[in-house]
Write a structure and sequence with these properties.
single chain; 187 residues; alpha+beta; two-stranded antiparallel sheet; globular
Length: 187
Amino acid sequence: MHAHKIDPEGFLDIRSLGKLNYDPLPDWGLNGYTTDKILAVCSIETPNEFEMILREKNQPYQKNWKQYDIEVLNTIISEGHSFGAFYQNELIGWAICSFRAGTRSLVIENMLVSEPFRGQNIGRMLIKAANREARLLGCRIVELETQNTNYPAIKFYQNCGFSITGWNSKRYEGSTETAVFMSYDLI
């Protein structure tokens, strides 16, 4: 699938995301990622200390996600804290977010931009919208989860101001991937 350059005369809008009436993913190209680098995760544990080590490792990796359950996404969207990127009124990306009052956090549950529109700051605009929403809700942080193998996403989130705050090597059953937790401080 080839890149689709945003036409300056076209209209790109980031706005509240309403209920999805269809699954746009078949039209969005690669539903996953390809990388030549991952984050290798290891830990050292002794009786008196625990150390977590993350290091870059040159290792090709490709992942294709299974189709999303649109009803599950719509349940999160119905909370009213999710955003869509629309180009010429067509949905081309989303940040699907949930609010957690107990931890005063906004969680980016799912973020995706249509493959032809990637690399044009649309993801950054969606992050900014989520950060604004989190501030309006009085959140202390915006948080998310990705995988150690999704190096492009980790670097993207770091460039948007997120920090790695933890990991879980047992999160994904039957997988060698490690969950990487990241957060953006609002306070």
